[in-house]
Write a structure and sequence with these properties.
The structure holds two protein chains of two kinds. By secondary structure, chain A is of the alpha/beta class. Helices cover 40% and strands 14% of the residues of chain A. The mean pLDDT of chain A is 95. The longest helix of chain B is centred in the N-terminal third of the chain and has 17 residues. The chains are: A alpha/beta, B alpha/beta.
């Protein structure tokens, strides 16, 4: 991401949209706990026409699901562009590289490199984890494949995958001061775009973006702010207390609780739309990542009401 | 030190049940310090087993007690030879290395483990032990302010914390300190936070267990 962006050949549709300076919209699709491709097709139908690319999660919360590669391929077949999530929890460097080659051969052009939720959160906490390399190492690996055409051993690949590389950032995790340094490190490792943890604490997010801007980081990476519409005060409280790295301020929880139960969904929607409106105006933010977890039918409404024309 | 924990009495009883004469063999170094297999634990376990067999199994069991300095060193192992000869089985309260050393040295005697070897660690305060070292064979503590992310980060991350740490605690369990929180605090104190800007390449695990069973050869010490 630099001034001569116009001369860069886009690696994916998502990359092209960001290169064009459009406000990008990405969504999320969790693959099924089973081999039913119709689940993906149904979710794709709900998202199509509203978003630029869809993240396919990789055994999120350490629960066995259809692989993100397969999910991503089903999305391509449904006419959507996937962002394949890949965690370093379950595969060593050999398997990760192999799957990246396979994914690219299947037409997958975006990757999101993650550490992954610890297996103790999942349904099989007795599993052995891997963590052979970390998420930054994975970013660097994909970048090196793209730039040098070689795998981690230095072997020249027949066709090297050229993927648009993403990573996550959590401006709300501690220690706060280190979060910008960590972002810089991800950029140095080769990340092209960042999707953030769900934003409810806008003050803290703004502070993080300001610090990133001051370090010149927003010139080097596309940042997509994460949003998740809340359904109820109970959900807000649960997420705040139980979901790792989540920060939902008291005033948001109170606001969700201040309306009659039947109006809570609309209140959650309003909060989400207000957040998107602020993100659109925020210098250094290139798009929004809508994580409507198992609530894909809501994405179209969010996009329409937020005026994110697609 | 190597930290271990005595196996549940039920499991120990099941493992010694087929035998009549049992030598409970303690180890006087690491497992003594962590109250798992020293002289005192040998004595308590022997009494417990005698009592349990008398009341539950309706039969008596002959138990001999012995504790040697270190079951992992040949020099001390020999002291157990006579006791092993007098009994049908050895219930070793040493760590896994000690149990295996005994089994190698006395191939005719069945050796049973009475302790679960848990980790290389320290005693934080009396009765509280925690892990410090994974024995990865390539120590990087100099970079991390003396705090090991390979061992103390639940995800073995070498390039900084994941997104799950809050209030200095690990996402896995609030009783676990986030290693990266500690590293950042320590490096800030030392004025070395810039250390963390350096990209750490993928770790070479060949020196760890993924290179197969490890062996250390010291030519200068070979006689």
């Amino acid at each position: 991401m630099s001034n001569d962006d116009m001369t860069i050949k886009p690696l994916s549709k998502l990359h092209e949209i960001l290169l064009n300076g459009e406000f990008a919209v990405t969504g999320e699709c969790g693959p099924p706990r089973g081999a039913n491709r119709e689940v993906i097709a149904k979710k794709a139908g709900l998202l199509k026409g509203f978003i630029d690319a869809v993240n396919v999660t990789d055994n999120q919360t350490a629960i066995v699901r259809m692989s993100s590669i397969a999910g991503a391929v089903h999305l391509i077949e449904a006419g959507l562009e996937p962002v394949m999530q890949m965690v370093v929890r379950d595969r060593n460097r050999i398997a990760l590289q192999s799957d990246i080659l396979g994914a690219y051969s299947m037409g997958i052009r975006n990757i999101l490199c993650l550490s992954g939720d610890h297996q103790s959160f999942g349904s099989q906490p007795d599993a052995l984890n891997v963590f052979d390399i970390d998420s930054l190492n994975l970013v660097r690996t994909v970048k090196d494949m793209r730039e040098t055409g070689k795998d981690m051993s230095g072997f020249e690949l027949d066709i090297a995958p050229a993927m648009f590389i993403g990573a996550a950032a959590n401006p709300f995790a501690d220690p706060f001061e280190y979060r910008v340094l960590r972002l810089a490190k991800k950029i140095d490792a080769g990340v092209d775009f960042i999707q953030t943890q769900c934003i409810y604490n806008m003050a803290r997010f703004k502070q993080w973006i300001k610090m990133a801007r001051e370090e010149g980081l927003t010139e080097k990476v596309y940042i997509l702010g994460g949003v998740t519409p809340l359904k109820s005060a109970g959900m807000a409280r649960y997420m705040n207390n139980k979901v790792a790295g989540m920060d939902i301020p008291d005033e948001i929880i109170k606001r969700m609780g201040s309306v009659p139960k039947e109006d809570a969904i609309e209140e959650g929607m309003k909060i989400c739309l207000e957040t998107i409106a602020e993100l659109k105006e925020l210098d250094g933010v290139s798009g929004v990542h809508i994580m409507a977890i198992e609530w894909e039918e809501k994405v179209g409404e969010i996009v329409k009401r937020a005026g994110l024309k697609k | 030190m190597i930290v271990g924990e005595q196996k549940p009495i039920k499991e120990i009883m099941e493992s010694v049940a087929p035998y009549k004469r049992v030598l409970i063999l303690g180890c006087g170094t690491c497992v003594k310090t962590c109250f798992a297999g020293g002289e005192d634990e040998v004595e308590v376990l022997a009494s417990a087993l005698r009592l349990a067999f008398k009341t539950k199994k309706q039969r008596s069991i002959e138990i001999e007690e012995l504790t040697i300095e270190r079951q992992c060193e040949n020099e001390f192992i020999q002291e157990a030879a006579a006791g092993i000869g007098r009994n049908d089985v050895v219930l070793s309260l040493a760590c896994g290395a000690g149990v295996q050393a005994m089994a190698e040295r006395f191939p005719a005697a069945p050796v049973l483990p009475g302790v679960n070897t848990t980790f290389i660690g320290i005693q934080d305060r009396p009765g509280i032990f925690s892990e410090r070292c994974s024995g990865c064979g390539d120590c990087g503590l100099a970079r991390f302010g003396g705090i090991c992310p390979v061992t103390r980060c639940s995800k073995k991350l070498l390039n900084g914390p994941c997104g799950g740490s809050q209030n200095g605690k690990c996402e896995v369990d609030p009783s676990i300190d986030c290693a990266w929180h500690l590293i950042i605090e320590r490096l800030t104190e030392l004025g070395q936070l810039d250390n963390l800007k350096t990209y750490i390449p993928p770790k070479n695990w060949q020196t760890s267990t993924s290179g197969g069973p490890r062996k250390l050869v010291r030519e200068d010490q070979i006689i």
